[in-house]
Amino acid sequence: MKNWENRLSALLLLAAGMTLAAILVLNIWIAPPGSGMTLVEPESRPESAAESLPMPEPPGPVNLNTATLEELDTLPGVGEVIAERILAYREAHGNFTEIEQLMEVDGIGEKTFAELKDHVTLE
Description:
- This protein is mainly alpha-helical.
- The chain has helices at 2-26, 49-52, 69-73, 80-93, 110-116; strands at residues 62-63, 120-121.
- The N and C termini lie far apart (97 Å).
């Protein structure tokens, strides 16, 4: 009979331990209704913090002929790679004489140009 009681005690301790672990790990709170506790749903978060942050607008039109990599990087549709290509184009061909020359930069097509044209200047 003693052996049976030891096994039952061990089984009850194991069950209690697993229940406590589930409460702690899964953050499950058990309370009777009306106990004053309320269920608070966690705030929904976007899948990526980067997705929730809007791209900063450039302070004004960016001068294609004097802009730095960092300034070009603020333009819509332009990341670091495209900004480097704009600088390389400017280095190879000299200053831009028309904004439409942006479409000669590898990676800037009509769609990207349409996003950029109101944000750049040659002055």
